[in-house]
Amino acid sequence: xxxxxxxxxxxxxxxxxxxxxxxxxxxxxxxxxxxxxxxxxxxxxxxxxxxxxxxxxxxxxxxxxxxxxxxxxxxxxxxxxxxxxxxxxxxxxxxxxxxxxxxxxxxxxxxxxxxxxxxxxxxxxxxxxxxxxxxxxxxxxxxxxxxxxxxxxxxxxxxxxxxxxxxxxxxxxxxxxxxxxxxxxxxxxxxxxxxxxxxxxxxxxxxxxxxxxxxxxxxxxxxxxxxxxxxxxxxxxxxxxxxxxxxxxxxxxxxxxxxxxxxxxxxxxxxxxxxxxxxxxxxxxxxxxxxxxxxxxxxxxxxxxxxxxxxxxxxxxxxxxxxxxxxxxxxxxxxxxxxxxxxxxxxxxxxxxxxxxxxxxxxxxxxxxxxxxxxxxxxxxxxxxxxxxxxxxxxxxxxxxxxxxxxxxxxxxxxxxxxxx
Length: 421
Fold this sequence. Notes:
The chain is of the alpha/beta class and 421 residues long. The protein has helices spanning 12-24, 35-43, 65-71, 86-94, 107-117, 141-154, 170-180, 197-206, 220-232, 251-257, 274-289, 298-306, 312-327, 334-342, 348-363, 369-388, 393-400, 404-414; strands at residues 4-8, 28-32, 49-53, 55-56, 59-60, 77-81, 99-102, 160-163, 189-191, 209-212, 236-241, 260-263, 295-296, 331-332. It has a five-stranded parallel sheet, sandwiched between helices. Strand 10, helix 9 and strand 11 (236-241) form a beta-alpha-beta unit. 37% of the residues are buried. InterPro entries: AAA_lid_NorR, CheY-like_superfamily, Homeodomain-like_sf, HTH_Fis, P-loop_NTPase, Sig_transdc_resp-reg_receiver, Sigma_54_int.
């Protein structure tokens, strides 16, 4: 018997695309944009699987998952969402969905999920959406993997180790996991490297949920106390560390905490999330300072996407905060972004790197990117050298460390229709 798919999607174009893809894969499809209609179909025993968008005309379909489970406890549910946050993935997992597909997704992945789900039993559950911490968002595959890991951990009371470079948002991941477990961050005991050894041991005996931060900074004595505390039992621990397991963590402590592992990716592995992060942070700063929202032009966004961000999301946030204060609601361009970044440049080499990154980011959008970048640098160098030397090419060549003929030849290559820059 051909499986029957109920499709709930209010985007008419996407609804048509998904219906055709499912039909081509051999499924019968009944589609609607109305949650009430879909729920009535389910109530009447129609369909073998529900494929539903999360946000539908202002409503959140995740809040109907409990009803779906009561009406048809054996019906698998797959949800789709462009709201790429940890809360969405967590709520989907808590609601018992078979799979959560962040938009945009590959149609083949959707078909594979449907095929797999039809052999599985859906689970019951419901969870209200919570506000997502600004910065802990993203549609990239790397970030979606982190969200799904948090969602899996939310359904367990295992100890959890959250790994990642400094500044990626490990504490935010821990807070998201606490919320998913139904625990306010105010009700959890937070322990840092500054806490005495006695408090580390006592923390797991006095609270159901404990957050141990920055384990890589803990002394050997503190790590032994933590290990003894875990051996004594009682509380559940969510720990964070900014380095690999091989770099100094007590093996037994790591083994106990690694009942569940979550890896938060560095920003360089999720550059496609940077525009959304910029929007989120700039919106936060506009509310913070009661000012108009700062917008970024295309070149500014492109540069931010191409920057190194060794400090990860924390560094990006600091730059955008300075940018928001400096521009006060107007459109910010590349010069504004570079000025904000330059505040962190402590010496001439760092300053040069900032400008070089800007040139690289803009050049990489063009074919022959390296030649484009080199031409841009040479034009600027030669123009300023000639200005400083009053147009004297011999003196400009000396300043640049070139001979006069080389300078003349390169000038001709850069601008064959002019004798001067």
